[in-house]
Amino acid sequence: MPQWLCNQLMSAFLKKDRRQIRLLNECWYYYRAKPEKLKESAGTNP
Does the reported pTM lie above 0.70? Predict the structure, then answer.
């Protein structure tokens, strides 16, 4: 996980900002899933 995202999550948890936590969580899953999709598409196309 990138350091900037860790810092943002820590700040959101300390502030108990649920909206921000949800947004950052979605960003993390999008960020994490993006390289996997690229790997899959690279493997299927010769």
Answer: no
